[in-house]
Amino acid sequence: MKTNTDPHQMALTSVVYRNPVTSNTHYNELEVRHSLLARRATSINRISIPEHASATLTFHNINYIVEAKSILNKQCLKCPNLPFFKAQQQKQILFDVSGKFMNGMNAILGPSGCGKSSLLDVLADRKDSNDLSGLVLVDEAPRHPSFRYTVGYVVQENICSGTLTVRENLWFSINLRMPKEISMTEKNQRVTCVIKELGLEACADTRVGTDFLRGVSGGEKKRTCIGMELVLSPKILLLDEPTTGLDASTASSVMNCLKDLSQRGRTIIFSIHQPRYSIFKTFDTVMFMCKGRCIYHGSPRDVVSYFATHGYQCEQYDNPADYALDVLIDVSRNLDTLMRLNNIYNTTNANVLALHHIKESLTNNNNIEQERQKYKIEAARSIKAEIFYLSQRTLRNTVRNPALALSQTLVSIVIGLLAGLLFYNLKRTIEPGVQNRLGAIFFIILSQTLSNLTAIEPLISESALFIHERTSGYYRIFTFFIAKLLCDLLPMRVIPTILFSGISYFMIGFNRTGGQFFIFLLTIFMTGLFGSALCFFIAATIHVFAVALIIAILIFVVMTMFTGFLVDLSSVFSWLSWIQWISAFRYASNMLTISDFKGLTFCLSNATNFCPLTGDEILDTRGLAHANSWDLWKNFFALTIMSIMFFVFAYIQLLRMKKTK
Ligand SMILES: Nc1ncnc2c1ncn2[C@@H]1O[C@H](COP(=O)(O)OP(=O)(O)OP(=O)(O)O)[C@@H](O)[C@H]1O
Q1: Which of 8, 401, 379, 5 has the alpha carbon at shortest distance from 175?
Q2: What is the CA radius of gyration of the chain?
Q3: Which of 578, 581, 536, 586 is nearest to 560 (CA)?
Q4: Label partner for 202 (CA 20 to 30 A): which of 61, 266, 562, 565?
Q5: Is residue 379's pLDDT more than 80?
Q6: Spatial separation of the C-alpha atoms in residues 77 and 249, rounded to whole Å
């Protein structure tokens, strides 16, 4: 393959530099280097996956400490789930870890909980820098702020869109993550090339699959996730346990695939649990970790002899990987041995040399972090393009997985018919006309409220995908929010609203004027929109479906109780009655009540044509002002404000989701 340039560097075109501070000589050099790269990138007119894209990643004295919650005292063990019984405690996960990963297959091995994933996250710049000390360098320079978005990182869980095909997932990744300068032809070339490299030709146009939709195999799904990173053509590819959950042959095929990539110059770094020998021997280097410390880093061929010198003998037919893991388990139980092996590792010649090389950089470490924060990163695509690609995916998702949309539509038809039959052709009599009319309004608001609970599920089920894509810099939160609104929340309210209103309004026999039907339609739509906004906010705040659902139901029930239909609001305790002002459903039912009752007269049911009660009197009794049109529209205004407020809250919650882990 032809290699005209380095697309990893090309991705830097998506980075702009704002107010770089020039107080530090070392950083000045970096800045010059980066701007040179950026300038060079703009002149590139052809992209191909480079055969020799290699990078060396070194890390020095990495310490990672988190705030962990611990139970305060023994008595509190009885109530461990209550947050106020927990105290913040510092927990060190990584202890002075240093090392160097060059192009090739670099494995990180160790027992569960030894800090493999944490180290990978640190190397990928996905941890909060406040919890970290130490230095990570790429080709002897500090990582660029965009490193997190340009490095390939395949998380342990296979996160990609299940309703899209393998090829569509790759396109989604390349469309959103590569700079806009890259042409369609070049992207197509790259996607085709990655599909070929990963051996995905046979299933390229098969849907990946979800829990309920059979798709590609586990190995193919894993390779799709790898492909979504490879389309960026990263020099460094990090993978968290790429073989977990795969059978032996699929694990081998994934590892062979990675081996191929490494032979083409990429630096592949991955954590792995108990590899078979056939896999173990493909590694170029292995790093053994134990309780957050590194105790060996070198060739897999030297493992047995290295540990033998420390008193651990490998049995004749034992797999060296199993043997090493047994050694690690033994070492983890013996703190003295662990410290001894860790000290030996830290003082090995190679390591000392590496530290010597970057001594100057180490002293500038604090400055480097501060400087990194000052760079502003811009997304690779324009807002319009991001909305387009996200909407395209959402629509495909809806069309290919129509259960939710169909059930929402069907439920609207059924409830519309039910309301129509229950309150069929309302009479304008005092008994039972008035009561039935009020009952119909209450039923309509209640049913529309409850049918909006469905808005919780899609966001919660997509939260893992959203967090992953946000961390990997696929799109801005704003564009995700707009696409969700335009292609998911709004259509799911508009169509059912029209169907429900069209059926129920005329069957029930509310006033048949165009204006009143429009107010009815608008009220139903706004009720749905408010319900969606509230559910969106709850789903963005609480990620456990059952908890989110129960909270949404609780809020809906309280709001329904304060509509004024179940209890006379003037008789409620004064310290409780303020809830009526935040009951969106009171505003909705007020709109319907005022619109329908105003100007009506209600007759006696004995057909005497004596009509002693007017709709205006009923509105007066219910305390609903109706003198002018503002009295009606102020309810619409309040409903709109509350919907906007909850959409804003939902957006803030999305922003608050941490990019780092
Ligand atoms: N944010 C955190 N708060 C508290 N403890 C944490 C946090 N992050 C990691 N840990 C702890 O740090 C240790 C190392 O976690 P890590 O996920 O890095 O281990 P691992 O070697 O990848 O484990 P596994 O192989 O089981 O995935 C674990 O004991 C984990 O519970």
Answers
A1: 379
A2: 31
A3: 586
A4: 266
A5: no
A6: 45
| pLDDT tens-digit map of 349-365 | 555 545 555 555 555 55
Q: Which of 546, 524, 357 is nearest to 449 (CA)?
A: 524
Q: Which atom number of ligand 1 is nearest to the Cα of residue 67? A: 3
Identify the pLDDT of residue 546: 93
Percent pLDDT > 70 in the chain is 83
Closest to 30 in 3D by CA, of 373, 368, 359: 368
Q: Which of 488, 477, 579, 483 is nearest to 535 (CA)?
A: 488
One-character DSSP codes across 468-481 = HHHHTT-S-HHHHH
Which pLDDT band holds residue 157 (cuts at 50, 70, 90)? Answer: confident
90 Cβ inside 6 Å of ligand 1: no
Q: Is the CB of 39 under 6 A from ligand 1?
A: no
Superfamily of segment(s) 52-69+87-151+275-352: P-loop containing nucleotide triphosphate hydrolases (3.40.50.300)
24 pLDDT above the threshold of 70: no
Say yes or no: CB of residue 116 within 6 Å of ligand 1: yes
Could you give the residue ranges of the DSSP H alpha helices within 489-513? 490-508
Which of 129-143, 333-347, 395-409, 540-554 ranks highest by mean pLDDT? 540-554
What's the burial of 567, exposed, middle or buried (CB within 10 Å: 0-12/13-18/19+)?
Answer: exposed
Angle of helix 184-197 relative to helix 248-263, nearest 10 degrees, comes to: 130
Cβ(88) to ligand 1 under 6 A? no
Domain boundaries, the chain: 52-69+87-151+275-352, 383-656
Ligand 1 pocket, residue 69 CB under 6 Å: no
Is the shortest distance between the CB of 68 and ligand 1 below 6 Å? yes
Protein residue closest via CA to atom 31 of ligand 1: 113
Confidence at 11, pLDDT banded by 50, 70, 90: very low
Top mean-pLDDT range of 24-38, 129-143, 518-532: 518-532
293-320 residue pLDDT tens: 998 888 888 888 888 888 888 887 888 8
Residue with tokens 């830097």: 12
